[in-house]
């Protein structure tokens, strides 16, 4: 085994001076993996995204909202309304997926976390951007402009 490894290492040492493609090409050409076949008739088209597609519907589950925020980045961006103004939501974290008793869009804030009730569960807001403002942590936003906000969106 040691001699096989040393022969392999020495063969690589001698090939170092060769162009990089020549080391990998033989392995790629002899590969037994197959390419998946795609059918052009089974393909579908998706419509172009519009700005309104980024609006967060707080009646959806926490997991769906997390996927929505990630899926809408960078364009059109996920957003909601807060105190009658636009609030972009850049990052969230699924807090709980348990059914909630409160109304979707209700904000619960503490010193270390800002959570919003969803249709099922809660999401923690991590990064937001106020209308005309810069991107910041949700905690910093709530300490300043967001301190009086108790509800998000039109849910």
Quaternary structure type? single chain
Q: Unreliable stretches, pLDDT < 50, 5 or more residues?
A: none
Q: Which class do the helix and strand fractions yield? A: alpha+beta
What profile does the largest beta sheet have?
6 strands, antiparallel
- With helices defined by DSSP (H or I, 4 residues minimum), what is the helix count? 4
Describe the 3D structure.
- This protein has four helices and six strands, in the order αααββββββα.
- The protein is α+β, with helices and mostly antiparallel strands and 155 residues long.
- Strands 1, 2, 3, 4, 5 and 6 form a six-stranded antiparallel β-sheet that branches.
- The relative contact order is 0.14.
- The mean pLDDT is 86.
List its salient traits:
155 residues, alpha+beta, six-stranded antiparallel sheet, 4 helices
Short structural summary:
This protein has four helices and six strands, in the order αααββββββα. It is an alpha+beta fold and 155 residues long.
Write the layout of secondary structure elements.
Blueprint: H1 2-15, H2 20-29, H3 62-71, E1 78-82, E2 85-96, E3 107-109, E4 114-117, E5 122-130, E6 135-137, H4 138-143
Antiparallel strand pairs: 1-2, 2-5, 3-4, 4-5, 5-6
């Amino acid at each position: 085994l040691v001699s096989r490894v040393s022969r392999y290492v020495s063969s690589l040492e001698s090939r170092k001076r060769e162009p990089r493609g020549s080391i990998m090409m033989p392995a790629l050409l002899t590969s037994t993996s197959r390419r998946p076949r795609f059918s052009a008739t089974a393909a579908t088209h998706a419509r172009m995204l519009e700005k309104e597609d980024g609006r967060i519907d707080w009646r959806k589950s926490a997991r769906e909202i997390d996927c929505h925020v990630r899926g809408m980045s960078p364009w059109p961006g996920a957003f909601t309304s807060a105190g009658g103004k636009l609030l972009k939501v850049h990052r969230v974290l699924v807090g709980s997926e348990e059914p909630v008793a409160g109304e979707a869009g209700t904000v619960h804030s503490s010193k270390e976390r800002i959570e919003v009730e969803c249709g099922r569960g809660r999401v923690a807001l991590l990064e937001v951007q106020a209308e005309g403002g810069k991107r910041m942590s949700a905690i910093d936003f709530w300490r300043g402009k967001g301190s009086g906000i108790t509800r998000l969106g039109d849910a």
